[in-house]
Amino acid sequence: MSVTDPDARLGPVMCVVGARPNFMKMAPILRALAAHRPAMAMLLVHTGQHYDKDMSDKLFEDLRLPRPDINLEVGSASHAVQTAEVMRRFEPLLDAHRPSCVVVVGDVNSTLACTLVAVKKGVPVAHVEAGLRSYDRAMPEEINRILTDQVADRLYTTERSAQDNLAREGITADRVCFAGNVMIDSVVFGRTHARDPAQTLQACGVASGLLKHASGYGVVTLHRPSNVDHPETLRALLETLGEVASRLPLVFALHPRTRGNIEKFGCTTLIDPTRMVLLPPQGYLEMLGLMAGATVVLTDSGGLQEETTALGVPCLTLRENTERPITVEQGTNILVGRDRAAILQAVDDIIAGRGKRGRMPELWDGHAAQRIAADLWQWLSARANQTPRI
Ligand code: UD1
Question: What CA–CA distance (Å, rounded) separates 184 from 170?
Answer without folding.
Answer: 29
